Amino acid sequence: MLTIDSQITEEKRDDMLAYQKSILDYGMLILNFWDAISEGDGGRILRCWKYFLMYLKHQGGSATKYSLEALYLMFQVYALLSPQAAHRLVWNRGVKVKLGSSNIPLDLLLEFFNKVIKEAVKKLGPSATPKSLDRICNSLGITTALMKRFDSNLSVFQRSGKHIQRSAKSDTEKVVNELVKHNAFTHTPGRKYTFYSKMKPSLLCGFNLHKMFSWVNDHKRHMILYRRAR
Fold first, then answer.
1. In this predicted model, what pLDDT tens digit does every residue of 151-199 receive, in sequence order?
2. Closest by Cα among 150, 203, 189 to 26
3. Cβ–Cβ contacts within 10 Å for residue 226, how many?
4. Which pLDDT tens digit goes with each residue over 35-59?
5. Region of 34 on the Ramachandran plot (φ > 0 left; ψ -120 to 50 alpha; else beta)
6. What is the pTM of this model?
């Protein structure tokens, strides 16, 4: 049975170092994923999802449905879709809404469109009908572009929905000073936490590769039988 684990004796246990490793292990993956979305790097986004697949499968519980979505994304890219459709799926995962800005996920753009539709429906009031709602949805792209052009020509000031973040410099310096003071990244046997006792250096510690492969093969058969677990 193949497992990802690190065998550490009780005498050499260092909960503080293991905690820092665990944060960096998963935190750097999250940051890499966000940066890939911002840069519109579909290939890197897909690679990040491959790693997320292992983390989500290992976590289990409420994360199972997300691991299934990650798995079926791989199925679509590498088996189910045509090369053209797979290429579009990989590289059409973000959009740049403003010149000079970073990319945002497509689902976030959809939320922006939903906001416009809700405002239009609200103004219709009791006169809203299925036909009028269809007309609003079908003309959403043109309507949004016209509204932006109209506001731009009239120099209409719009408050940004982005929250202003306070500088984290002071807090960062405090954290760094504490890490340096306690030699958090130096292995020191005997350091133990009360609430994070026996902390593992990675969230993937104990990950069973054999079960992972069996799980993937089971869902391959589900795809052949046109069954999809949810």
1. 777 777 766 666 667 788 889 999 999 999 999 999 988 888 888 788 8
2. 203
3. 6
4. 999 999 999 999 999 999 999 999 9
5. alpha
6. 0.79
Instruction: Give the CB-side neighbour count of residue 84, counting CA atoms within 13 A.
Output: 0
- Alpha-carbon torsion (115, 120, 121, 123), positive or negative: positive
DSSP per-residue string spanning 85-116: HHHHHHH-SEE--STTSPPEEHHHHHHHHHHH
Cα–Cα dist 117/120, whole Å: 5
**What type of residue sits at position 189?**
P
Of 42-46, 92-96, 101-105, 191-195, where does the model show the most confidence?
A: 42-46
d(CA 155, CA 170): 38
